[in-house]
Design goal:
Largest sheet: 9 strands, mixed
Radius of gyration: 59 Å
Number of strands: 66
Strand content: 15-25%
Structural class: alpha+beta
Distance between the termini: 81 Å
Number of helices: 51
Shape: elongated
């Protein structure tokens, strides 16, 4: 809906309102659309038709209109562009080409115009399903329209002027043609109107799009086309008015009134410069729902008394060549046609609209409306192929936006408004000068009732009626009439008193009849009666209106008697076979008797006013008597004239430009073919079926094989043109039938029917009509008796019977070709040929004209003194128009047609067989020629008694003929298809060869010279004529055989295995020499070279066994390869030095050995790593006593030979962390001892106190001594541990003791000086825990100061307070700080396994207050930070390591090579680690990689085996020439490893081939005589074969889940049938599909039947496709160390199952699947078969 609104907006904005309205609508468009979406109940319908799709996409990428002029005429090409894309309406636009000219006389002029269309569809999947001129429907299949060449030009470009010869197409100019894309090109078959509308339906994916194309005739400058031949019509104008159809037909729509000129001016209303007019110009008011159209014009009334009365054949004016006659016909035609026109709206129903009357209502639809007003009906347009006749047509393009609910109300009026009558005629010939209006008079009868009446003459009983109803929608019908030019043509009988005109109302409810009475006046040109009274029958009873009658004579009578009655005032002349027999002037009854053999009797009735009418009786069923001896003599005289005056010599001895000379010579007689120069058919440019037909006929006449002339099957080429029996236009079918008959090939029955119609057609070109007669002459039942009689009569009708001259030359007797009217000899001779072929003698009396001239006399009169003929009396001096005349004369002389004489008939077939028998019974020196003749004879003889022998087995006939001519060249027609010079060359070669008698290799130069002379002929065509070429071949083979041996020996060069074929070819070339050749000196010298080369080759072949064995080792190395590698090394070492030089891939063996060493080293590494792993496991939990175990493990680890061995130590992390833990333990013990000693010394202070809790005079010295001792030890250790005091848990006891001593010493002091206080404060050196005693001393001294002194030491006191505060923090946080410091010192190096000690310290640190953290020494902080970093790095490293470990574990189950991806991922991750030594399962990764290698090795082995299988498969049918292939296959097989050999399943084929070669070698060789090289086809296949030798086969195929391919072979009678000759079919393509060549592809499991159809029989392959299986009864087992368990597995199909342990140290497995436990642990057993892999988990306890 939105799209429709947008389209409506576009139309309004750009076509109607101009820029202002455009801006308004653009501004408010969204609001309009939103409102509409809310209120609209019904979507707006704007499509031009009720399309099934709603797409407005332009369906054509390019669209062109082509107007073709005439049967051979030129073309004009226009581009078509859309004027309304939404409704897909296109209009003819710019012209793209000048007229495509046609050269020479190929263009016949004429006025036949046709339309066609060409272009490219936008969608690749679209196709045109229908194209029609309105009411001229034409279905077009997708195939026929998409495969043609299509015109194509870029924008703004035009065609240049170019020309085409007759028969050529636009493909001569490829720059104007597009072949890619979805192109189409319709047939040029639509008749041309001045203006026209086409409907096109385009289908695309089940959707249809309806398109409309509007066209107009313009000239090459896109201007109005004005070429009306009648100048009197140029001023005729049509005045057209449109009315409101619903307003009682009175309201005229003024803006649509128009005056349109017939010859020039506008024909399409609504277009301007090929674009749609503005909306206000073409829009119909919305309150008008339908329109009516009327027209009037100023066409002049008839005045010329010679004007033709209307007859049924009047519209077909194409046969009228006389200019003045044509003008009268044009003029008269339009007079009648102008009485009414046809109108149609939007491609719907056609309505008749009479002059000055209004049309029926034409209902408008929403959107664009197209009204087409045509001057003729579509049906009439098909018949009248003339632009002038179809010229008066106009198109109105209107726009309407009203309500479509309006319905037309049809009238019940059935009254007649007007009736006009005009004199008509039987045909144009009788109608000339009869034109007259017949008044329709109102009469009143005796009862006072009125009626209508017309007056008619009895001898002019034809009438044309124009009946106009009061309501234009009513229908009119005149009883027993036919519609013609908008009126009714009627034949009246004098027995009729009236005729009726019926009018039926538009609504069908009312019918009125208007009776028109006839007043007859006597006529003067009738017979009263005519009948057969005895001896036969007449098909129809006589009536005056029937002019032709067919009579049949009784076989027993021999005579037939007529009775006829004449009228008063008439003269009747009776003609028997054109010869006047009697004249009757008196009325009365008469009888006429005709003898058997008469063909026609004619009664010519002439009235008193001179008007004549003829009645004819034609005899049917008469047999032709053939050509009389008199006529043959006349023909003979003309031939003698040809011979005497050199024409025959010209005919036979001068190269022909085409095949006509051959036809002419053959027509004269076979003797004229001997020594004749014929047309070289290889020069022919083949473009149509006629080309191939003519060549076939010439080859047949020349004694050549049309099925295989120089490798080309011309019969097959011709048959490819067969389109349901139609081989093309014009004479194509005539030539095709003749050629197929001559070739003995099937003739489609449809072709015969086409020729029958052509022969019967009176408007068909006379030349070709004569040809059609001869072509069908052997088809006895082609025509009925009546058809045949009518055919002969129609031919007579075109013969000039009355005495006529042209340029003073008597042309009486000439057959007139209506296309030319120049009485030319070609057309005339063609008809003579046709009549001769059916046995009609044109020299007999019945063909004589009124002055006695017959068709044969025309040939005599036209013959020139040179013996040839001139073309026409128009120019008698113009000679050279001989071909048809020569054939006609030859046919008359021989009494039969030249082409039919060469038709392959049963008698000709039998005659050839008889000749072949006689030849075979005689002596044939050449064995090969006898063999070929015998074979060809046997093949041809098989079909001798078949009914269709000459219509299906022509190939056998001509193959036999060819074989006969090879034996006896003298019986072959002596036609040389080439030039005289070429013939001289051929004869010179024949003479040179005749000079050859005996020869040796020394004669090589002479023989080469003759051979060169022979080769100079160049063409196979010329070699064909060298009849003694076999002599040259033998001599040349002798020398060539020696040359071949010498050449092949010379090419050997340096000997190696690649020279095997060359050496074999040299040996073969030598063996093929005969004993005489071997004695030649040059041969003996070369033989010595060959012998040495063969010796060296033997060494190379011996060495090749090793080469093949090295090659078979492949690229993959596994531990299992050890035996194969050692075997190959041993084989190499056993070679001689000479043989070793041929082993070119020894480096590959070294690579394999290196690879094996690497794998073996890997195994050694694994064993050494296991030992180290055991030592590390022995360490256990690390204690102070682990030093030896750690040292032993480390020593063993460091002693490993390489890095990979170290990586395989899966528990190395335990060793590394164990060493760190041991170092930490050692450090911890040292710290513990020092701290313990310091704590002890501090503890002695308590002892010094004694029993007193305070310091007294008794214990003061002891305490002081103890304090000093402890302080001294601490200071000593502070040299090693800077923060030693913070390690001691009882350090506060020491500090307290020191403080107590200060208190004791100052206890008796009563005052202090300022200096003492300042000195005490000065002794406070920091804020550490050790400052407690110093601070205490300063506090005591401060308290002893006077108040005045205290005021002087405020700064010092402030420092004291700071120290007190700092110490108070120490007092509060000491234990926490001490725990962190002690823990840090004790922690040592951080490890993952020892992470607990680090975590405890970290937790203690995290619990410290911010003040406490500030108390920590910087060193402790740094160590804690370093430990945190180390711990995070270890964690990250551990995470990566664990990821790698997981990837390795994930990849551990390997089923097939698809698991290689996971292994590669694991390897990549491992290699990316910075410290890979912590990976605990690296050995598993190595095992996985080995497993992948093993699978690859299996695959590689199969590939090597397949290569050998293919080599062997090619040896099923061997000859000695295959010896090297057999030996190569054996070497390839022997070179395989044992595993690979086990996979070769066709070894028996190789052994059979070897046996066959051995057998063949034992047979004696025949003397070497070089034979012609035979082409061999090498069939390459790697598919397994399924062979069927009976009616059916049941076979089971196992399917591995991937597509498998087989080749199907069918044997019938123990002979293989070629797959391409079989029709294959699969019952279920989803299970298995079969190609046309018998290739079977298996897709899934199931049952399927493959049917092979061959020669009407069916053979069946019943296939059961099963999926291969491998099942384990248990997927896991548990065994004890030293015990064994059997793995139970089942494979389908049953094949050898292979078992392998992934860790042989834990468990091993035998070849039969018995598992033995070795040591505790877990591993897997790999089970494989049929390409499948399963795993069984094994746990050893």
């Amino acid at each position: 809906m939105v799209l429709q609104l947008c389209s409506l907006y576009r139309n309004i904005a750009f076509k109607w309102t101009g820029e202002v309205m455009k801006k308004i609508i653009e501004k408010y468009l969204l609001s309009i659309i939103i409102c509409f979406l809310f209120i609209a109940a019904v979507p707006v319908a704007v499509s031009a038709q009720e399309n099934t799709n709603t797409s407005t996409k332009n369906v054509f990428k390019e669209l062109y209109m082509i107007r073709k002029n005439g049967p051979y005429g030129g073309e004009l090409i226009w581009r078509c562009t859309p004027i309304d894309e939404e409704n897909n309406i296109y209009v003819q636009n710019e012209v793209l080409s000048e007229t495509v000219g046609v050269s020479g006389d190929a263009y016949s002029g004429g006025t036949f115009w046709y339309y066609g269309f060409s272009g490219t569809l936008s969608s690749d999947t679209a196709y045109i399903s229908e194209m029609r001129q309105w009411e001229n429907g034409k279905k077009i299949t997708k195939e026929s329209i998409n495969t043609e060449l299509a015109y194509c030009l870029p924008e703004n470009t035009t065609y240049g002027t170019f020309s085409l010869n007759k028969g050529e197409s636009l493909s001569k100019y490829p720059q104007y043609i597009r072949e890619e894309g979805n192109v189409f090109h319709t047939e040029d078959s639509f008749p041309v109107f001045r203006a026209q509308v086409f409907d096109v339906i385009v289908c695309d994916k089940n959707e249809e799009t309806h398109c409309t194309i509007i066209t107009e005739v313009t000239d090459r400058n896109n201007e109005d086309y004005d070429d009306w031949t009648d100048t009197s019509m140029k001023g005729v104008r049509d005045h057209i008015d449109l009315y409101d159809g619903s307003d009682k037909q009175t309201k005229k729509i003024d803006k649509f009134s128009d005056k349109l000129t017939w010859s020039t001016g506008k024909r399409i209303f609504g277009l301007k410069n090929y674009k749609l007019e503005d909306r206000d110009v073409i829009e119909v008011p919305s309150d008008i729902h339908s329109i009516r159209m009327s027209y009037d014009n100023n066409y002049p009334e008839q005045e010329n008394t010679n004007t033709y009365a209307l007859s049924p054949d009047l519209p077909d004016i194409t046969s009228v060549n006389d200019y003045s006659e044509r003008q009268m016909i044009y003029y008269n035609y339009h007079f009648y046609r102008n009485k009414s026109k046809m109108v149609c709206i939007n491609g719907g129903e056609w309505y008749q609209v009479h002059q000055t009357e209004k049309s029926p209502e034409l209902k408008l639809r929403k959107g664009i409306n197209i009204i087409f007003l045509s001057g003729t009906s579509p049906d009439q347009a098909k018949k009248v192929r003339d632009r002038d006749v179809n010229g008066t047509s106009y198109i109105y393009i209107l726009y309407w936006d009203g309500d479509e609910d309006y319905k037309i109300t049809k009238s019940s009026d059935a009254s007649l408004k007007k009736i006009e009558c005009y004199q008509a005629a039987y045909n144009m010939g009788e109608g000339k000068g009869l034109f007259a209006n017949i008044p329709v008079n109102e009469k009143t009868n005796a009862d006072g009732k009125t009626y209508k009446e017309i007056s008619m003459k009895a001898d002019e009983p034809y009438i044309w009626i124009n009946a106009v109803p009061a309501d234009s929608g009513a229908s009119v019908w005149v009883d027993n009439s036919s519609e013609l030019l908008g009126g009714y043509f009627k034949h009246l009988s004098s027995a009729q008193d009236y005729f009726d005109v019926k009018v039926t109302s538009a609504d069908g409810k009312q019918t009125d009849t208007e009776r028109i009475y006839i007043k007859w006046s006597a006529g003067g040109t009738d017979l009263k009666n005519l009948e057969v009274i005895s001896g036969g029958t007449m098909e129809e009873k006589y009536t005056p209106i029937t002019r032709e009658y067919y009579v049949k004579m009784k076989e027993s009578s021999g005579k037939i008697k007529f009775s006829y009655e004449t009228m008063n005032g008439t003269t009747v002349r009776i003609y028997e076979d054109r010869q006047l027999k009697d004249t009757i002037t008196q009325s009365g009854k008469y009888e006429l008797e005709a003898e058997k053999g008469v063909r026609e009797i004619q009664w010519e009735v002439t009235s008193q006013n001179g008007k004549s009418v003829s009645y004819s009786a034609y005899f049917v069923g008469e047999k032709e008597e053939g050509i009389s001896s008199e006529t043959k003599q006349r023909a003979s005289d003309m031939i003698k004239k040809m011979e005497k005056n050199g024409y025959v010599k010209y005919l036979t001895q001068q190269e022909g430009a085409d095949y006509w000379k051959t036809f002419g010579a053959a027509a004269l007689g076979e003797k004229y073919l001997n020594g004749m120069l014929g047309y070289n058919v290889l020069k022919k440019n083949f473009s149509q079926s006629t080309d191939y037909s003519a060549v076939i006929l010439e080859l047949v006449m020349s004694g050549e094989n049309p099925y295989d002339y120089l490798g080309v099957n011309y019969v097959k080429k011709l048959q490819e043109f067969n389109n349901s029996g139609d081989f093309g236009m014009y004479s194509a079918n005539i030539w095709a039938l003749s050629a197929l008959q001559a070739a003995g090939a099937p003739v489609p029955k449809e072709t015969v029917e086409i020729l029958k119609k052509q022969a019967l057609s009176e408007t068909f070109d006379l030349d070709m009509r004569g040809w059609a007669l001869y072509a069908t002459s052997l088809y006895k039942d082609t025509f009925t008796d009546k058809e045949y009689a009518k055919l002969i009569q129609s031919v007579k009708d075109i013969q000039i019977q009355k005495t006529t001259d042209m340029n003073g030359i008597d042309v009486t007797g000439v057959f007139e070709n209506f296309y030319y009217t120049n009485r030319n000899i070609m057309s005339h001779a063609c008809m003579v040929t046709g009549l001769t072929a059916i046995g009609i003698d044109t020299g007999k009396n019945e063909w004589k004209g009124r002055n006695g001239a017959d068709p044969v006399s025309v040939l005599e009169k036209y013959q020139l003194s040179t013996g040839g003929w001139y073309y026409s009396p128009e120019n008698p001096s113009q000679g050279g128009w001989n071909k048809d005349a020569v054939i006609a004369v030859g046919d008359l002389y021989n009494g039969s047609n030249v082409y039919t004489r060469y038709y392959l008939t049963p008698s000709r077939y039998k005659k050839l067989l008889d000749k072949a028998e006689k030849l075979l019974a005689g002596t044939i020196t050449e064995g090969t020629k006898r063999e070929a003749l015998q074979k060809a004879y046997e093949e041809a003889e098989k079909y001798a008694d078949e009914n269709n022998v000459t219509s299906e087995h022509g190939d056998a006939y001509y193959a036999l003929q060819e074989a006969m001519y090879a034996v006896d060249e003298s019986v072959k027609p002596g036609v040389f298809l080439g030039t005289a010079k070429e013939r001289e060359q051929v004869n010179a070669v024949i003479k040179a060869i005749d000079s050859i008698s005996s020869y040796s290799y020394k004669d090589k130069t002479k023989l080469d010279s003759i051979k060169k002379q022979y080769d100079v002929l160049k063409e196979k065509r010329l070699f064909h004529y060298v009849t003694n070429a076999d002599v040259l071949d033998k001599a040349h083979q002798y020398v060539n055989g020696i040359d071949t041996f010498l050449e092949k020996t010379e090419k050997i060069g340096k000997v190696n295995l690649t020279k095997t074929a060359k050496i074999e070819r040299a040996r073969k070339a030598y063996d093929f020499l005969n004993e005489q050749q071997k004695k030649e000196d040059a041969v003996q010298k070369a033989f010595q070279i060959l012998s040495k080369a063969e010796t060296k080759l033997k060494d190379a072949k011996t060495a090749d066994n090793v080469v093949q064995a090295i090659k078979a080792l492949g690229e993959i190395v596994t531990l299992d390869s050890e035996e194969d590698i050692e075997s190959v090394r041993a084989a190499y070492e056993s070679l001689t030095d000479s043989q070793k030089t041929f082993v070119t891939n020894i480096d590959k063996l070294k690579e394999q050995e290196d690879g094996l060493k690497k794998l073996q080293q890997q195994e050694e590494n694994k064993e050494a790593a296991h030992k180290v792993s055991d030592l590390i496991d022995k360490i256990g939990r690390v204690t102070a006593n682990s030093a030896d175990d750690l040292r032993q493990a480390r020593t063993a680890y460091d002693a490993l030979e390489n890095d990979e061995a170290k990586r395989m130590v899966s528990n190395y992390i335990q060793l590394e962390d164990g060493e760190k833990i041991y170092a930490n333990l050692q450090h911890e013990n040292i710290i513990y001892d020092v701290v313990d000693k310091a704590s002890y010394e501090i503890g002695q202070i308590d002892t010094a106190y004694g029993e007193s809790a305070d310091i007294t005079a008794e214990n003061a010295d002891a305490v002081r001594e103890a304090v000093q001792k402890a302080e001294n030890y601490i200071k000593e250790k502070e040299q090693e541990y800077a923060y030693f005091r913070l390690i001691l848990s009882n350090y506060m006891d020491l500090s307290a003791a020191k403080t107590a001593l200060v208190q004791y010493e100052l206890s008796e002091k009563t005052e202090a000086s300022v200096e003492e206080f300042k000195q005490a404060v000065g002794e406070i050196t920091g804020f550490g825990i050790e400052e407690q005693a110093v601070i205490e001393r300063a506090e005591i001294l401060y308290e002893l100061l006077t108040e005045e002194d205290k005021l002087t030491v405020t700064e010092e006191y402030a420092l004291l307070q700071q120290a007190e505060e700092a110490f108070s923090v120490w007092q509060a946080e000491f234990d926490n700080v001490q725990e962190v410091v002690y823990g840090t010192e004790q922690m040592g190096d951080v490890t993952i396994t020892g992470a607990e000690s680090y975590q405890e310290v970290k937790d203690a640190y995290d619990m410290l207050s911010e003040d406490a953290k500030k108390l920590l020494p910087d060193e402790i902080k740094e160590r804690l930070s370093e430990a945190a970093d180390t711990y995070q790095q270890l964690l990250a490293q551990q995470e990566k390591t664990e990821e790698v470990v997981k990837k390795i574990d994930d990849a551990s189950i390997i089923s097939d090579l698809s698991d290689e991806v996971a292994v590669k991922v694991a390897r990549k991750a491992y290699d990316a680690l910075e410290n890979p030594y912590r990976v605990t399962n690296y050995e598993t990764l190595l095992e996985e990689e080995k497993e992948i290698l093993s699978l690859k090795k299996v695959q590689e082995n199969q590939e090597f085996a397949n290569t050998v299988i293919t080599q062997i498969n090619a040896l099923k049918k061997v000859t000695l020439s295959d010896k090297e292939k057999v030996e190569a296959a054996r070497r390839a097989y022997d070179g395989l490893t044992d595993a690979q050999k086990n996979l070769v399943d066709n070894l028996s084929v190789l052994e059979a081939a070897e046996s066959q070669i051995e057998s063949l070698q034992k047979q004696p060789l025949k003397p070497a005589q070089p034979q012609p090289a035979k082409k061999t086809e090498t069939k390459k296949t790697s598919y397994k074969k399924i062979v069927l030798k009976k009616k059916s086969l049941k076979k089971t195929i196992y399917f591995n889940g991937k597509k498998q391919t087989y080749s199907l072979a069918l044997f019938v009678n123990n002979k293989a049938v070629k797959a391409e000759k079989i029709k294959w079919k699969s019952s279920k393509r989803t299970i298995a599909a079969v190609s046309k060549n018998g290739k079977l592809t298996v897709k899934k499991a199931g049952k399927v039947t493959i049917t092979a159809s061959y020669k009407g029989k069916r053979y069946k392959y019943n296939l059961v496709i099963k999926k291969v299986q491998l099942k384990l009864k248990k997927k896991s087992i548990t065994i004890k160390k030293g015990k064994a368990v059997q793995i139970k597995s089942v494979a389908s199909p049953k094949r050898k199952i292979q078992y392998k342990s992934l860790d042989t140290k834990i468990a091993s497995v035998t070849k039969k699947g018995k598992v033995v436990g070795k040591k505790k642990g877990k591993t897997k057993i790999r089970v494989s078969c049929n390409g499948l892999v399963r795993y069984c988990k094994v746990t050893v306890k």
